Amino acid sequence: MGILRLSHVEVRCPDLELSVAYYTEVVGLIETARESDRVWLKGWDEQQHHSMILRYAPTYGLETLGFKVAEMSDLDEYQERIEQAGISTKRLAAGELGKGSGETLRFTAPSGHVVDLVHGMRQVGNMLPLHNPPPEPLGLTGIHPPRIDHVFLMCEDVDGATTFFTDVLDFRLTEQIVSDDGYQLVTFLERTHTPHDLAFVTGPNAAFHHVAYWVDDWNELRRAADLCAFHGVRIDAGPTRHGATRGWGLYFFDPAGNRNEMYTGGYWADPDREPVTWTEAEMGRAIFYYEGVVDQRFLTEHS
Amino acid sequence: MGILRLSHVEVRCPDLELSVAYYTEVVGLIETARESDRVWLKGWDEQQHHSMILRYAPTYGLETLGFKVAEMSDLDEYQERIEQAGISTKRLAAGELGKGSGETLRFTAPSGHVVDLVHGMRQVGNMLPLHNPPPEPLGLTGIHPPRIDHVFLMCEDVDGATTFFTDVLDFRLTEQIVSDDGYQLVTFLERTHTPHDLAFVTGPNAAFHHVAYWVDDWNELRRAADLCAFHGVRIDAGPTRHGATRGWGLYFFDPAGNRNEMYTGGYWADPDREPVTWTEAEMGRAIFYYEGVVDQRFLTEHS
Amino acid sequence: MGILRLSHVEVRCPDLELSVAYYTEVVGLIETARESDRVWLKGWDEQQHHSMILRYAPTYGLETLGFKVAEMSDLDEYQERIEQAGISTKRLAAGELGKGSGETLRFTAPSGHVVDLVHGMRQVGNMLPLHNPPPEPLGLTGIHPPRIDHVFLMCEDVDGATTFFTDVLDFRLTEQIVSDDGYQLVTFLERTHTPHDLAFVTGPNAAFHHVAYWVDDWNELRRAADLCAFHGVRIDAGPTRHGATRGWGLYFFDPAGNRNEMYTGGYWADPDREPVTWTEAEMGRAIFYYEGVVDQRFLTEHS
Amino acid sequence: MGILRLSHVEVRCPDLELSVAYYTEVVGLIETARESDRVWLKGWDEQQHHSMILRYAPTYGLETLGFKVAEMSDLDEYQERIEQAGISTKRLAAGELGKGSGETLRFTAPSGHVVDLVHGMRQVGNMLPLHNPPPEPLGLTGIHPPRIDHVFLMCEDVDGATTFFTDVLDFRLTEQIVSDDGYQLVTFLERTHTPHDLAFVTGPNAAFHHVAYWVDDWNELRRAADLCAFHGVRIDAGPTRHGATRGWGLYFFDPAGNRNEMYTGGYWADPDREPVTWTEAEMGRAIFYYEGVVDQRFLTEHS
Question: How far is CA A233 from the centre of its chain?
Fold first, then answer.
């Protein structure tokens, strides 16, 4: 099966305590481990050790992102393919990146992002018993999304980054926004048969646009917006619909300035589904279907 | 990737016109082809030719069910495995089962059901353009679920059927209801990382419990119930929640007596997720989480 | 304006602590006062001291129900009208029925129920500041409906009870279920331009069918059902829709056996709106629109 | 009971056919009558002849707004009070303003708006039978709100307009936004025990900010936004929440440039409820609770 899905992101923050308070109390993630300069968090329904690592750093931004692979042998196969593409890789044993971490293949993608492929991250369960479980544990706080959904990255050459992820890592293109002169402005890539696990948008290399967690429906987006407003979290856009992916989202910023999204909706994407193309003139609808235009701030503010 | 997902069901009905009217006007499926004794239908967002075939027959019930495979070579591999398991198979060329049908591997599972594995069913698109599409076509009628979700079958030996589908066809067990003396009463099996694409419940061999289409949220279940009541469709149960799968569902009957479900919710199931087990004493909660008991009619009325 | 709306109910319970725990933790009402044999509760958004009084008693049932009037002079006018109708009344000063109570006119309606008309109940605010309030206080628990909605009572002579409430107390009939021989089986009466503040159903005099609190939408009914199931509260019916009132409801029982409803939806009823009539044959749809039939238990189980 | 609620608005449009197409097909109102220069419309669940009149005019804006009174005698009483306040009035017989119109008391409020108080508008029913009705007629199109909700007007002296409507016409103040130097910037006034039937915001006299129709929940706002985007209707703001009223709304423009809102939510307001006050610094939250700021365009664009 190769790459199963987005596994986790590691995000920088200059005030670790403040960011932990935000991610646990407003977003409602669960803290699973802590060291002096890193805190590990997960969505309540995730079985694995973490989907977000907060790392102390002088500024904000994305340190690494990780994808989960199905088999240990996938790491070997992808290592060979990535090196054949002229990119150097590194293997890290389980636990080397922290107590819960799995066996890891690390490399820097052509987009400038440090990417980990991971197998065997420690399983910690989803807070529910394996016998006769209720649908949700009692006492969750904040927005409490069940799981991570996708990550949006920026790079100068979206065509090139997309080709790397489709050709070398077997991602499939679901949608794209194409400039009038034929370049890909934004691409949506999937491994989970959902509209996107990963997306690229034109911008500086190695830049980070947002990480999205899944919420269950449009009503949960409203609840998320209520909680953000209540806690004084700066809402960037939404609740709104995306033309691309057909999903609904709410964007807001963590205390360090990293953009978060709560996302829901979308469709089922079989591997033989033909990609959807948006023209540059319809980029507004593609991103913000209700507003029909994209605030330049949305495209230029990143970390 | 092997089996991708549930592809379609073929359902018997003694009054073809009445069933077509029901499935197109109340359920809101789209008719894609018609012959004198068969009508092909699909959910509006499905790209492929059909997810339901209505077949004229003197009574109701399930004629066949089909799963979609990713590659033509999957048919060969599964054919070998199935025959090694002592079950005879048959290959049918694309078009042989109707104009839209794909290359098919047909066999009878140990549960008594005729199963097709299909590759290359004709693609007909989802009623939306491939450039700058709106999120939904205008003018859909009835409940109009976007796609098929899962099928619930009955058989005498649930343990045996489950073993066949997991060992030979690579399904994964997500949940099970186990009797006090250790037999599987109900099993939930998936290929899509959702809670179930296929489930077995104890009953007569070859019997059919229900086919479920996906709707987008709890609110759509309410709308489905309003439409069923408006049109005099007999609602069997719900809107309610299932303990097993955590999903929400509404059950009702087509004019021939075949049970339909509209289903939504559930979780993401990685392949390494441990299955959930429900005890016989909690079978009520497992199936109808709100009511806490299962009406015997629900278990004994089938086709 | 006369009678403004349903003000409160006083409900009997043999285990006061257990009932308080249920109404505060599962239903999520707010406790505002307590004496040895009575506890006062309100919905979080109610401005007044209480909408429910739990009274220790050897059994369950309804002790009294109260309606709020707009002006003190309304008490005098209704007192005169009620006595003219041959019913004796009693005046109780503010505080006489407990510290938060208002000036009260008490009488026994022809249906056998003790009814209070109240003016000037103590105002305690809705947990939100009067300057720049958020939409909801943080930290509410359980279902936490904002306010009381309606009460459903039983009596032998529904026609007679309805006439008393419309002629003497200025209620307006919005809907009725009429037997084949022309008697009112169920009547829905309002003062708030909503479908009902009060309803009567045929049964024993002085009997209590249910008290309903308002929740904001269909999604909140689902959340209420999840919480009931989680806490082992016995769900009686729903989430479902009513044909009469068009609203949606969920019925369940408090630990003493008093039926509760969470209700939402409905329409706006101007005073000149013509009442809707349901025939006896359609009584099932009138009460449970999805199921189409009324479980006899629903009609015969009361307190 | 005096004034019951907002009855209707009469709105100007330079292209009557275009506006009728928009209000019937996108908004989904029902056309009930037509003359060469006027078209009458209503929400599907409204019993009376119209809640909106489209009037041909060279530009856009509000021609009149009407409130429904309970009794014919209310017209006489208000006429006396209004004239005592130094404002001249005019009586128009039923039918004089069009075939469906009721007996009307017309005057110009201190805010510069022409206001009608109406009794006895023709009743046309709500498209449902009076016996055993379904909850909604089949075949409604567009957003199809059931009824009108409130109107937002502009004037130079909000304090003065508010005093007139509270003192002379018995409206009650539910919320206000007050400037740092103590003037009312926005006031919310009700007759229906909802957060507002009428509101004033500082601006030019006689100007019209928006008319709002009610939709049933947050999910219907999403559906409304989908329909607006699909039909190329310009969305102005939302779906979002208001701090004041706690409601949710979506703003967009009719083809003539008149602002519409679809609104839902809010609370129950007893007459003895104390008004909520928002400070000028929190005006952003009061109007757009999620965004926290008010786009100047929202305040300055009007008709």
Answer: 20
pLDDT score of C31 more than 90: yes
Residue D103 carries which side chain, given as an amino acid letter? Answer: E
**3-state secondary structure (DSSP) of residue A19:** helix
Find the CB nearest B1 among A1, A217, A286: A1
**Catalytic entry in D113, D119, D209, D242:** D242
Instruction: State the Cα–Cα distance between residues A227 and A25, nearest whole angstrom.
Output: 10
The C-alpha atoms of residue C127 and residue C129 are separated, in whole angstroms, by: 7
Tokens standing for A303?
């970390």
pLDDT tens by residue, C235-275: 999 999 999 999 999 999 999 999 999 999 999 999 999 99
CA distance C191 to C193: 6
Closest CA to D103 of D94, D111, D115, D112: D94
- Return the CATH fold of D147-299: 2,3-Dihydroxybiphenyl 1,2-Dioxygenase; domain 1 (3.10.180)
pLDDT at C303: 80
- Residues of chain C found within 8 Å of residue D285, distances taken between Cβ atoms: 132
Q: How would residue C295 be classed by pLDDT, with cut points 50, 70 and 90?
A: confident
- Contacts with B130 (C-beta within 8 Å, 6 or more apart), sequence order: A274, A275, A276, A277
Look at the block and give the residue holding tokens 């046309």: D124
Residues 6+ apart with CB under 8 A from B73: none
CATH of B3-119, one of 3.40.50.261, 3.10.180.10, 3.30.70.3270, 3.60.110.10: 3.10.180.10
8 Å CB contact between C181 and C295:
no
What would the two tokens of residue D170 be?
Answer: 């018995």
Angle formed by the axes of helices B218-230 and C218-230, nearest 10°:
110
Positions of chain D with pLDDT lower than 70, given as ranges: none
Distance set, CA B49 to CA A266, B2, B36, B139 (Å): 21, 20, 18, 20
Identify any residues that bridge with A146 across adjacent strands, giving them in sequence order: none
Q: What is the dihedral of CA C174, C177, C178, C184, to 10 degrees?
A: -70
Q: Is the pLDDT of residue B101 over 90?
A: yes
| Residue B37 and residue B56 in contact, taking contact as beta carbons nearer than 8 Å | yes
Q: Report the C-alpha gap between D53 and D264 in whole angstroms.
A: 23
User: pLDDT tens digits, residue range D237-274?
Assistant: 999 999 999 999 999 999 999 999 999 999 999 999 99
Distances (CA, A) of A51 to A31, A213, A227, C207: 10, 10, 21, 55
Residue C300 confidence (pLDDT) above 90: no
Q: Which residue has the tokens 């509270």?
A: D166
Neighbours of chain D (3+ CB pairs under 8 A): A, B, C
Q: How far is CA C301 from CA C159, C245, C247, in A?
A: 21, 22, 22
Please, which residues 182-241 of chain C have a Cβ atom closer than 8 Å to chain A?
217, 219, 226, 229-230
Q: How confident is the model at residue C107 (pLDDT cuts 50, 70, 90)?
A: very high
A188-205 burial, b for 16+ CB within 10 Å, e for fewer? bbbbbbbbbbbbbbbbee
pLDDT under 50: residue ranges of chain A: none
Among candidates A225, A234, A241 on the partner chain, residue whose Cβ is nearest the Cβ of D241: A225
Cβ–Cβ below 8 Å for D226 and B138: no
A31-53 residue pLDDT tens = 999 999 999 999 999 999 999 99
So what's the pLDDT on residue A302? Answer: 84
Q: Where are the domains of chain B?
A: 3-119, 147-299
pLDDT of residue D303: 80
Token pair of A87, please? 């990119």
Mean pLDDT calculated for residue range B79-89: 98
d(CA A202, CA A185): 5
Domains B3-119 and B147-299 share a fold: yes
Residue of C297, C295, C293 whose CA lies nearest to C283: C293
